[in-house]
Automatic annotation (TrEMBL):
It catalyses: Hydrolysis of (1->2)-alpha-D-(4-O-methyl)glucuronosyl links in the main chain of hardwood xylans. This is Xylan alpha-1,2-glucuronidase. GO terms for molecular function: alpha-glucuronidase activity; xylan alpha-1,2-glucuronosidase activity. Its EC number is 3.2.1.131. It comes from Terriglobus albidus. The chain holds residues 29 to 728 of 866 of the full protein.
């Protein structure tokens, strides 16, 4: 059990309730996707039920009991993927409106069996939105930006890999959770990506995705007309530039007829963009959109545009404002195949942020939500953090646009504001995933529950979290009740535990901001030019984003703005995101802010520590290989949670000058400091920043 099968292990199940499942499969046709669906069904049934299932010729469809796959295509190319499953005396019928939905129906049936659930008499499922993509931040040299599980499965040495077996396996995993697009390269795109030679290589990748209904997409750099085309400009309003993009896109579609589209990061973190020519994001997005439209391709233009040279001394400067400031005024001017891809929060994937107000500001423009399965700021797959808990909270957040109910999930699925540029709205969900060559894809055996959960929420954002994690656990670890109970309990508590020992009360992830984003680095998160600040000062802490401060809160629709603006109604888990308050500010639980910070860190670190002993109950119950891997990671997390909570509590005690009421800070029980050990050849040294080592010292 090396984890490579993820949730598609197809382990044997108790067969009693599946006796009536026929052993004959009648495919809908011999086309590649339909063939893949029939073969997947055969593989799953044989493996889980110990059956000898055969795939019949299509013409055999009329006679005898069978699992029948039926394709009834609709007329609109924009129709959402949909399938039904019916069981009756003559067998099981899976009917779908697209070949990929047929695959989804097959995977759903197999999932029910794998999780030992009863089969439905009749079930109908339709995707919540058309865009259900992953973004992979892979570079063509084989490295992955913010990838934590080995090198790229797509590229090496500047080329698409020769052996794409793993890319094909990944596409199958994506299809099994309803994902229909995969952008394979870094949003910080290689500048020579679009050369003819590379496009031919990308076509090979698209080929291994195709049987799984996963459309290949690419991130592109807007300077490509210069860097690849040799032109003197990349001004999106220059007709020659528009012509270049049109030719380039036509060339791509000749090689990849089902190409999904482009993702664009521009005018952000050093990437060039339309601002260089005084042009807008709409100008840039639309020139690409017009080239892609005849082929039904889309542009996912990222809303992650901000000035990364903000001045710390300017108390009005606020990176959180950038989304609305840069995009709201262009609402309604984007082509209808442009989708603005908005990170879930206004900063950058912190352990908790409020929802981006840009979702409510774009009323006549397509939008998709960008979530991050790669745990960049949430423990980098060395800590267990089940992010669907956070995502569900985000998707459920009601922005109250126009004083009516407009939860994020209704916005990104096109229900709250039904039109974009006069056409039915398109939108959806994107996950930055960054799988790698390590056998189990994401390093931590628990981390694939995040990708699984993403797929499930993208298909149906209303699916209960408890059901999602229950299914994942059964498929990944087996159906034994004690296994299911323990793993689901741990996963469901993990986000709040992580938040508790890293950054509660909306302070954000107090991590090393300038480098690798892992472990505490509190001072480095201030005065750094990147605007990711929490303004810890002598008098108090937190970013003042009220009307007196940066004014960010006013970017929300009025009801929500009023709630955040007032200390009396601001949710305390976002308090320091919105307000600058004194350290002895009284929280609703009666504790002072600083005491609550101390207590939360110690108790969350202790809870993370408890994962180890709780996990040990499964020794000999789950397979040894994954048991040991998880045990090792839980031990690491337990230790690192202590490092985190010590660092933050020491820092708070020093800056606030208010001691912990229980006297723990700086006197943590059971601690032996490395510098207190007398050893030859070692010397204590001061550590910078001091808070990242207990007592500010390490030994070398
Ligand atoms: C930040 C990452 C950086 C990405 C950027 C982005 O640290 O590596 O390039 O987001 O999303 O979180 O563009």
């Amino acid at each position: 059990e090396d984890g490579s099968a993820a949730w598609l292990r197809y382990a044997p199940v108790a067969t009693a309730q599946y006796r009536a499942v026929p052993t004959r499969i009648v495919p809908s046709s011999d086309a590649p996707m339909e063939r893949a669906a029939a073969e997947e069904l055969q593989r799953g049934l044989n493996s889980m039920l110990g059956a000898h299932t055969e795939i019949a010729a299509q013409s055999a469809s009329a006679r005898g009991a069978a699992v029948r796959l039926v394709l009834t295509p609709g007329t609109s190319p924009e129709a959402l993927d949909s399938y039904t499953i019916d069981t009756s005396a003559s067998g099981i019928r899976i009917a779908a409106n697209t070949p990929q939905a047929e695959l989804y129906g097959v995977f759903h049936l197999l999932e029910l069996i794998g999780a030992e659930q009863p089969l439905p008499k009749h079930e109908q499922q339709t995707a919540a939105a058309g865009i259900r993509w992953t973004d992979e931040w892979d570079n063509m040299n084989g490295t992955i930006e913010r990838g934590y599980a080995g090198p790229s499965i797509f590229f090496e040495n500047g080329h698409v890999r020769q052996d794409l077996a793993r890319a094909g396996q990944y596409a199958r995993l994506l299809a099994s959770i309803g994902i229909n697009g995969c952008n394979v390269n870094n949003v910080n795109a290689d500048l020579d990506l679009l050369t003819p030679a590379h496009i031919r290589e990308f076509a090979r990748l698209a080929e291994v995705f195709r049987p799984w209904g996963v459309r290949l997409a690419m991130s592109i750099d807007l300077t490509s007309p210069q860097t690849v085309g040799g032109m003197s400009t990349f001004d999106p309003l220059d007709p020659a530039v528009a012509a270049w993009w049109k030719d380039k896109v036509d060339e791509i579609y000749r090689a990849i007829p089902d190409f999904g589209g482009f993702t664009v990061k521009a005018d952000s973190e050093g990437r060039k963009g339309p601002s260089q020519y005084g042009r807008s994001p709409a100008d840039a997005a639309n020139v690409l959109a017009r080239a892609l439209a005849p082929h039904h391709g889309v542009v996912l233009y990222r809303g992650f545009v901000y000035n990364n040279h903000l001045d710390w001394n300017d108390h009005k400067a606020d990176r959180a404002r950038a989304g609305v400031d840069n995009f709201a005024r262009y609402d309604g001017t984007f082509e209808d195949n442009v989708i603005i891809q908005i990170k879930e929060g206004p900063i950058d994937f912190q352990a908790r942020e409020p929802v981006s107000p840009l979702f409510a500001a774009l009323r006549r423009t397509n939008v998709a939500i960008e979530l991050q399965t790669a745990q960049e700021y949430t423990g980098q797959q060395r800590h267990m953090v089940w992010l669907p808990s956070m995502w569900h909270w985000v998707l459920d957040t009601d922005l109250h646009a126009d004083d009516r109910s407009t939860p994020v999930e209704q916005i990104v699925t096109g229900h709250s504001f039904p039109l974009a540029n006069g056409k039915p709205r398109r939108g959806g969900f994107v996950s930055v995933t960054n799988v790698g060559m390590e056998a189990n894809w994401l390093h931590h055996p628990m981390a694939m529950a995040n990708l699984y959960g993403f797929g499930k929420l993208a298909w149906n954002p209303d699916q209960p979290l408890a059901q999602i994690i229950d299914r994942w656990t059964r498929l990944t670890w087996g159906n034994r009740p004690e296994v299911v109970k323990l793993i689901t309990t741990l996963q469901l508590e993990s986000w709040q535990v992580y938040e508790g020992y890293t950054g509660p009360n909306g302070i954000g992830t107090l991590t090393n901001i300038l480098g690798y984003h892992f472990g505490p680095g509190i001072e480095s998160a201030e005065r750094n030019g990147w605007g990711q600040w929490f303004r810890g000062e002598k008098d108090g802490i937190g970013m003042d984003r009220t009307a007196n401060g940066t004014g960010y809160i006013q970017q929300y629709p009025s009801q929500l703005a009023a709630k955040y603006e007032s200390l009396a109604t601001c949710p305390e888990d976002l308090l320091l995101f919105f307000h600058h308050v004194p350290y002895d500010y009284k929280l609703r639980n009666g504790k002072t802010l600083v005491q609550s910070i101390y207590d939360t860190h110690y108790s969350a670190a202790a809870q993370a520590g408890s994962y180890v002993t709780r996990w040990q109950q499964l020794h000999g119950v789950v397979d040894d290989e994954r048991y040991e891997q998880v045990l090792r990671l839980f031990r690491f997390q337990a230790g690192h949670a202590i490092v985190w909570s010590d660092a933050i509590n020491n820092w708070f005690q020093r800056i606030s000058q208010i001691p912990d009421a229980q006297g723990r800070v700086g006197h943590e029980a059971g601690r032996v400091e490395a510098e207190a050990i007398i050893g030859s050849g070692y010397e204590p040294v001061d550590v910078t920043p001091w808070e990242t080592a207990s007592g500010g010292k390490a030994v070398v």
